[in-house]
Amino acid sequence: MIGGDGFGYDTRDGRHHKIPQIGSVVVEDDVEIGANSTVDRARFGRTVIGEGTKIDNLVMIAHNVVIGKHCIICAQVGISGSTEIGDYVILAGQAGIVGHIKIGSGVIIGAQSGVSNDVEPKARLVGSPPRPIGEWKRTVVRIDRLPELYARVKKLEERAAQ
């Protein structure tokens, strides 16, 4: 679905009132958009999918999003409204991007990451909150070792109490 209403509501007197979405969608040359993906039209301006960008199936691109050139957006990625994405960005499967942030050119975001802040160009991040890939790998290894560490600390505490 390309050009559907953006998800915009104003709550007054306990009711949600739709904000008209009267903008447009621009899909530049050599773009591919997979099955069951949605690209919402902008509230006033333009939602833009840059030249050469490839979008997998089941991707959600909200209103006013601007995606740069030659990006790869994998399945089940969700990009919230008014986000700006640079050129040559890769968003791996099920990554979630909050609205109103900027992701620099050349960034790679790993699968199932939750991005809630601006990302500097060429960063390689994964996780939620996202961390540099090397740091994230070290953290996962440490988390896997927590049960063993807990048991060792418990034994030390028992010895110290004697």
Output the keywords.
162 residues, UDP N-Acetylglucosamine Acyltransferase, domain 1, alpha/beta, six-stranded parallel sheet, 1 helix, seven-stranded mixed sheet, elongated, 18% helix
Brief account:
The chain is α/β, with parallel strands linked by helices and 162 residues long. It has one helix at residues 133-161; strands spanning 2-4, 9-12, 15-18, 24-27, 32-33, 38-40, 46-49, 54-55, 60-61, 66-67, 72-73, 78-79, 84-85, 90-91, 96-97, 102-103, 108-109, 114-115, 124-127, 130-132.
The CATH architecture term is: 3 Solenoid
CATH superfamily: Hexapeptide repeat proteins
Count of individual domains? 1
> Would you tell me the structural class of the helices and strands?
alpha/beta
Describe the fold and architecture:
With 162 residues, the chain is of the alpha/beta class. It has one domain (2-132): UDP N-Acetylglucosamine Acyltransferase, domain 1, CATH 2.160.10.10. The protein is 18% helix and 33% strand. It contains one helix and 20 strands. It has one helix at 133-161; strands spanning 2-4, 9-12, 15-18, 24-27, 32-33, 38-40, 46-49, 54-55, 60-61, 66-67, 72-73, 78-79, 84-85, 90-91, 96-97, 102-103, 108-109, 114-115, 124-127, 130-132. The strands form four sheets. A seven-stranded mixed beta sheet has the order 5-8-11-14-17-19-20. Strands 1-6-9-12-15-18 form a six-stranded parallel beta sheet, with no helix packed on it. A hairpin with a 2-residue loop joins strand 2 (9-12) and strand 3 (15-18). It is elongated, with a radius of gyration of 21 Å. The N and C termini lie far apart (69 Å). The mean pLDDT is 96.
